[in-house]
Amino acid sequence: MVDPLNSIQLTTERARDVHHFFEKKKGESTICIFCRDWKASDPEKFPNHIYIYTPRTANSGLRRHIEKYYILLFLEQAEKHGWLILIKSVESAFSMGYISKSLRCWPALDS
What we know:
By secondary structure, this protein is mostly helical. The chain has one domain (about 5-110). The chain has 7 helices and 3 strands, in the order ααββαβαααα. Strands 1-2-3 form a 3-stranded antiparallel sheet. The longest helix has 11 residues, at about 60-70. It starts with 6 loop residues before the first helix and ends in a 7-residue tail after the last helix.
């Protein structure tokens, strides 16, 4: 259970999604783990996009990367781990009555 008075614990709780997708070390570049591994295993098929961010990149910016490149994996992992949903498009869809399973089946997300 999260103690609302403990801001460090709350920050960690709110960033579990980011920590699942990114390697963040103080003072070093923040790297998308999935992009790094994809590029290492199949550099010819890796799309040309940014996956290394400055140490000062906010979690909201990193979530945009997740939203753009890994939304289906995010939905699967968010449900599995019970993450807080802080990706705006997913929050919006949930507020309109969609559920994770219906979003994962939505054809537009496959592109």
